[in-house]
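Action item from last week, closing it out:
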Amino acid sequence: YQRRVHGEDFGTKAKGGQESTCLNMQSVCAFYTSPTGCRYGAACRNFHPGSHEAAVNSPGGAARPPPSPSATVCVFFQSPQGCRFGPTCRNRHELLDPAVAAARQSQTPEKSQVCQYFQSPQGCLYGANCRNLHPGMETKGLVLPDTPPVFTDHLTGPFFALDVECVANGRGCADRVPARLAVCNSEMMPVFDSFIKPECPVVSYLTPLTGIVAADLENAKPLSQVLVELKRVLPADAILIGQGITSDLDWLGFRAAADYATHFDVAELFRVQKAPHLVVPGGRTHTDFSLRHIVKALMKEDMPSGAHDAMSDAQYAMRVFQQFRHLHRDPAKLAEVQRTLLTFPHVPSFAEHMPFIDGVALSPNSHAFETRLAAAAHRG
């Protein structure tokens, strides 16, 4: 046998004096089929399904025999992502006539169980070929449920995009106070940008996420004074735009009709309703997408990585609003955009990469994210 011990290879001589190359690999490599691949290549201590070495040196020391004629046909072999087990698959890999494949697809039984991975941060590995239901999509293909139309023709401006960055005043994911406010106009030009001095003790400045450090707030003005200065810039008939803007306005204590005319959440343009039978009691009736996901999927751009920038986020929100504000006028275009967002690979949030900062949770799922990262590090 051959095995890896402290980076050295040991082997025995097989019949004929040749060294055996059978690998003593017990588990499937978690990184081999990932977009980045396995950095150890053929030297990996785990099993690489579908690789040449795996086909010749399968776990147990012998190549897996070919599937018997009675074995079922692999349903993933002709799927877009292919079969991850390659030549080692226990099912038959056979090319079907397109007409036969279409007929089989049309005879696919209805799916009754909701996929537990579809709306998870990492998404479902099998995509549209999953044997379970993906909420927001019907059983065969991507037949979307009716989405209430969102029209913006009554919104005539002037438009201003607003974004707030917060620091933490507690350990929970909702313990936040505003520390920076940025506003741009409809031409994406900055019109207001100010740090805000918190009036309560700061537990963490969340610097990796916000880019804010203690020195930024030392000479900052309190929220009440910042809002007075903001009102001097914003006209009374201003329409405020933002991604998840309701939370920002709540943090600021800004009120519609009193401090501005009205506001519009960009997320509403892309919201996908779930089919009624897929709604869990007490759960959400729709699927929302992050601004980063929308920009990458529809505009083919990557928003700046690392710490958030309030002005940059406001400008992207304005760009998205201007480009897609009339999306719901064309139902066919709307369905196309929704399909693109639903099938586009999940864009991980900051909290998925760094669930906690200074012991402060960044998401209600921070503990789950931390467990996943620990498991990935252990496998690596």
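Closing note: The chain has a mean pLDDT of 78.
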